Amino acid sequence: MLLALEPGTWRFSELRRRIEGITQKMLTQTLRGLERDGIVTRRVYPTVPATVEYTLTPLGRSLCEAVAVLRGWAYTHIGEIATARADYDDKTESGRDRR
């Protein structure tokens, strides 16, 4: 969601197209939560039908910076993560590691 909002101001329908597989309900709930937390601002224009735009706040932009660091870490270590998952799956599927 943050990546979809990061480069500017977006209408609801634009965000829905940018975020593959998200339902209208989930997008609405997520945007409301982000607005409540001060991560995004919601601006409604008096048009028919109403035009609504969402933009990251300064707080939201600072969160994007933190997420970018985590994203970089994940890209750097994706091979190790994939190996660890495969090892775990092999152990649990063979029944050697019963919990």
TrEMBL record:
**Which InterPro entries did the record assign?**
HTH_HxlR, WH-like_DNA-bd_sf, WH_DNA-bd_sf
Per UniProt, residues of the HTH hxlR-type domain are 1-82
Per its record, how is this protein called by name?
Putative HTH-type transcriptional regulator YtcD
**Gene Ontology molecular function: any one:** DNA binding
PANTHER family xrefs:
TRANSCRIPTIONAL REGULATOR, MARR FAMILY, TRANSCRIPTIONAL REGULATORY PROTEIN
**What gene name is listed for this protein?**
ytcD
Q: Which domain of life does the protein's organism represent? A: Bacteria
Parts of the chain that traverse the membrane = none
- Species source reads Nocardia aurantia
Which keywords does the record carry?
DNA-binding, Transcription, Transcription regulation
